[in-house]
Amino acid sequence: MNGCGLYFHIPFCLSRCSYCDFCSLVDLDEPIVSAYLLDTIRELSFRLNEYPIQSIDTLYIGGGTPNAIDHKKIKTLFHSLGQFFTGTIREYTVELNPEQVTVSWMEMLRDSGVNRISLGAQSFWDPSLQTVRRRHTTDSFFRAYEIASQVFSAISIDLIMGLPNEPKEYASIAIAALRQLRPNHISIYQLELADNTPLYRQVMKEVVDLPIPSSTEANESLIIEFLAKEGYIHYETSNFCLPGYESLHNLHYWNNDDYFGIGLSAGGHIKNKRYQNTQNLEAYMRSLSMGSLPPPEYERENQPAEEGKETLFMGIRKAQGIWIPKLQSFLSDLEWKRFWDQICMSEQFETKDGYLRLAPHWFRKNREPIGKLIEIWDQSLTTKEKQTNPFC
Ligand code: SF4
Known about the structure:
alpha/beta; 2 domains; nine-stranded mixed sheet; three-stranded antiparallel sheet; 15 strands; about 20% strand
């Protein structure tokens, strides 16, 4: 059986990046931050009462900006978390913004058991960083990386393609930076222009221009080619790593394993229950102070066919694909036959070593085949098992 993960959300930032629609607050009022951290520990204890689990194998502290808050508070949080579990946490990641990376933070993290750092670079082009109101520059990112790499060997960096001011020749800029840094894990995402963000409004008013998609696509292809030549494994649609440095925590998501999500807006999946906490800080804290779990944004008990569908659309993003017997276990024999007959007729999918995966041509351009996969899955179900799914 796969292990269980734990995601912990710290929803505080020093300022808002203009593209961000994550749940993060810029109110760093000290008493609220302290009370929030106590509430997250309460939430964890309530969730563990509901689903007793003694050990977890991955822990991911994300945000927001975990290093925006006082490092003594984070240290206390780590200590409290340690009281709940026995055994070794194989991968213990903290997400950091470069501008607050200091030697004392890194040493505190290492001494608390953290063994992996995720740093948000987003771009190596200062005009892009400035336009989207990131607080760091390319130079300060390099300094932060240097400090982090003196303490940690496992470092992941995030990049966003398609930011405003991204030049036509951006690939050569990014490749030069990646060659110098050589992180062992890289996530490359496309900018998603959410309509509740300042960037969206700027683009709509034509105050800010985005690069044309074909330019971004060409740059991304060159970066991916470079990574392949450098020995990086493209193991998930948006993720690359040197051998042995896959994100074990994210693999829990893509494998549809069990994981707790603790904190404001955090989501979890335990057995067949999927939930996401409220995004309202006041409601979150009020419930926990009254001894209840936070109100859910949504919460549902999945039927087998729904669990299967989630397994399908998350797992198909992995280069390895989905373990076919696991997928088959969610359907009756008749449903499986209907599903599999359709899959075998499509050139968008292939099988290898017992896994169903996207054919290479479709691995990066996966929107269409994933839509097709879900359609085939739904059509294979008997009427009474056809369910809607909040994830689709
Ligand atoms: S640092 Fe991250 S979470 Fe905070 S505003 Fe920027 S993108 Fe959003």
